[in-house]
Amino acid sequence: MTTLLQQLINGLSLGSIYALLALGYTMVYGIIKLINFAHGDIYMLGAFWGYYTINFWHFNFIFALVSAMFVCAVAGVVIEYLAYRPLRHAPRITALITAIGVSYFLENIMSYLYGADTRNFPQVIKQVNYTIFGVRISNIQILILATACFLMILLQLIIKKTKMGRAMRAVSVDADAAELVGININRTISFTFALGSSMAGAAGVLIGLYYNSIDPLMGMTPGIKAFVAAVVGGIGSVPGASLGGFLIGLLETAVQSVGLSAYKDAAVYLVLIIILLVLPAGIFGKNVKEKV
Amino acid sequence: MAMLEVKDLAVNYGVINAVKGVSFEINQGEIVSLIGANGAGKTTILKTISGLLKPASGTITYEGQPIQKQKAPKIVAAGISQVPEGRHIFPGMSVKENLQMGAFLQSNRQSMTDSFEAVYQRFPVLKERLDQDAATLSGGEQQMLAMGRALMSKPKLLLLDEPSMGLAPIFINEIFDIVEAIKEQGTTVLLIEQNAKKALAIADRGYVLASGEVKMSGTGAELLANQDVQKAYLGG
């Protein structure tokens, strides 16, 4: 029972980071039907930004987090503007391959500039462990969970209640109709990239704090896992991405806890295969029905 | 001076010349109907006016300003609002949210409340279903929602693309009554229809399109009485 609870805590902490990442995938897919494979590398940029600002500018956690979100939002918007926008009317596979190219570009430019070595993420917050009913939980885990949940609720409010959020939903269901009511499509897409990338930036800082190590290729595997999470939840669905992220985090911890650590990545991909076979639209995926 | 003047408009889809040098005009306060068979270029013309498509050549002048190079949001802001063919309401959003989207460019709260009131008055059925997912409405109700959404921006010129398409006969009559009522309230209407008889009956003037060109024009009554029009579009 204690082990189970312990793994639940660990799984939720990791899962909340996947969830933050998955949100970016799902929002970008929702609006321009692009699997943005460079999304994991935005998360890496966020982690590096956190590393530098904490080490050299002595930012505290909140400052590092918020500035990383801002910097990643800008990076996301610039990437969309330079790499994806010129391909807006090209076949989807072209944009997809471009996304892979952007991903390699970011990984290699960061390796070139800062070296490919793994670095220790600064301990901006001193780790304190609490033991409750035999379950060990660290202040870092609580911070990660709380931050991630706060950001997800904030995002949901932005999407549901604000004008830009409504514009995002309108463009993702019907871009032509959205344009006819006066929505600026390009600005809405930029906004979506900014939101999604800022979530990835936050996830980058949080993972640095959790695992204490960062490197230029750190975005590859979590990027793919977050993509799996988005598919599991139903790509295009925001609550689905959050749920999918938590599920993948829990699954990974569960596989580790039964002694199959070496297979934790394989387990995630196995889930992807099963979901695609039995529930291709994902848990919250919409089977879009059109009335003619 | 005409409110909207389309001159020598040509629009291509790739290598296909969908519209080949069409000219027509709309005066303030009129209902003008464009009729013609499928593929005559009617929808293409409408999409070009509202800025979704760019013309290969020709001009579109609205209130004295050329608008053929403007993007759709600018054109909406200038007072032209389109109800697209097939309604294109936003599924997954409530009726109220759909209407809010129609007022996307309005920032004045009072004017938005007025728009809502006007739409509720025109379409009482929408008021009853404010919180319902728009996708669950019937076809006729969706058409009303699409029209209500377009009216939320308080347009001076309303572009209607096949508003009666796929609707039950009872709704068709209602929609045409509403179009007339919209005109009575001072909004100019450009109506595209395959239901030529009804479209010409309520029109001040009409144009007959075929293969991307204007073949005939006149008042609604003249075109209704014309033998060629009767043969080709009114079933003899």
UniProtKB/TrEMBL annotation, chain B:
<dbReference type="InterPro" id="IPR030660">
    <property type="entry name" value="ABC_branched_ATPase_LivF/BraG"/>
</dbReference>
<comment type="similarity">
    <text>Belongs to the ABC transporter superfamily.</text>
</comment>
<feature type="domain" description="ABC transporter">
    <location>
        <begin position="4"/>
        <end position="236"/>
    </location>
</feature>
<keyword id="KW-0029">Amino-acid transport</keyword>
<dbReference type="InterPro" id="IPR003439">
    <property type="entry name" value="ABC_transporter-like_ATP-bd"/>
</dbReference>
<dbReference type="InterPro" id="IPR017871">
    <property type="entry name" value="ABC_transporter-like_CS"/>
</dbReference>
<protein>
    <submittedName>
        <fullName>Leucine isoleucine valine transporter ATP-binding subunit</fullName>
    </submittedName>
</protein>
<dbReference type="InterPro" id="IPR003593">
    <property type="entry name" value="AAA+_ATPase"/>
</dbReference>
<dbReference type="InterPro" id="IPR052156">
    <property type="entry name" value="BCAA_Transport_ATP-bd_LivF"/>
</dbReference>
<dbReference type="GO" id="GO:0015807">
    <property type="term" value="P:L-amino acid transport"/>
</dbReference>
<dbReference type="GO" id="GO:0016887">
    <property type="term" value="F:ATP hydrolysis activity"/>
</dbReference>
<dbReference type="GO" id="GO:0005524">
    <property type="term" value="F:ATP binding"/>
</dbReference>
<keyword id="KW-0067">ATP-binding</keyword>
<keyword id="KW-0547">Nucleotide-binding</keyword>
<keyword id="KW-0813">Transport</keyword>
<dbReference type="InterPro" id="IPR027417">
    <property type="entry name" value="P-loop_NTPase"/>
</dbReference>
<dbReference type="Pfam" id="PF00005">
    <property type="entry name" value="ABC_tran"/>
</dbReference>
<dbReference type="GO" id="GO:0015658">
    <property type="term" value="F:branched-chain amino acid transmembrane transporter activity"/>
</dbReference>
